[in-house]
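Encode chain A's predicted structure.
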Amino acid sequence: MDPIIYEIIDLFGALLRMLGLAAIGVAAGWLTLEFLRKGQQAWQLQIAVYLGIIGLVVALAYFLPYAPSALGLFGIGLVVAVLVWGMKKPKKDDEEEKTK
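Encoded structure for chain A:
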């Protein structure tokens, strides 16, 4: 086969890896916020979630040394999820304000 075809396949593979890690970053951010909200009384759960997300970032940095853009998109997805879902107020507050 022509070497240009291999380069095109490598390019598509890199793009797919970057988009996949961005989606995983959004999902990890959402799960982190959900677990932190549900475990407000249990500080052990909050510590475990925080250490887990830090461990995931460290593991990705170790195992993806040749794909810094993919790791960057994972971080961007994580930050976007935390900002989008972290800024929302719980629905309980909205219902209490309507009843006043």
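The chain is about 85% helix and 0% strand.
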